[in-house]
Amino acid sequence: MSLSQAQKKAFRSIGHHLNPVVTVSENGVSENLLAELGRALRDHELIKVKLALPERDDRTAMLEALINASEAEPVQTIGKVALLYRHNPQANPKLSNITRFENHHGRR
To answer: What are the counts of helices (DSSP H) followed by strands (DSSP E) for the chain?
Structure first.
């Protein structure tokens, strides 16, 4: 599933105010990191991930690995922070960033 430009624009607007909930360091991808990433995407649907790696090529490769492992959609990447989305049809409305901020900045 690919996100439309309108969806990406709306998600970027919501994601602007979010803080990173997962940080990836030079230690790489571990079972615990993937479990936390999966839990965060299941609960919040839209999350920020901080890639604390000094080299741009390393960050790009790490982001691709995370996207493939989590089946998430990349919304935006700026510097060391990526915004990821994965739809959850049974998301808790009190936890989902999409549901909580659906009227954010005039969205309907």
So the answer is: 4, 4
Residues 6+ apart with CB under 8 A from 39: none
| Residue range 7-44, pLDDT digits in tens | 999 999 999 999 999 999 888 889 999 999 999 999 99
Bridge partners of 49, per DSSP, are: 22, 82
DSSP summary character for residue 52:
-
Q: Which tokens belong to 53? A: 């790696």
Helix (H) or strand (E) holding 66: helix 56-70
SS3 at position 12: helix
C-beta separation of 53 from 59 below 8 A: yes
pLDDT band at 105 (very low <50, low <70, confident <90, very high): low
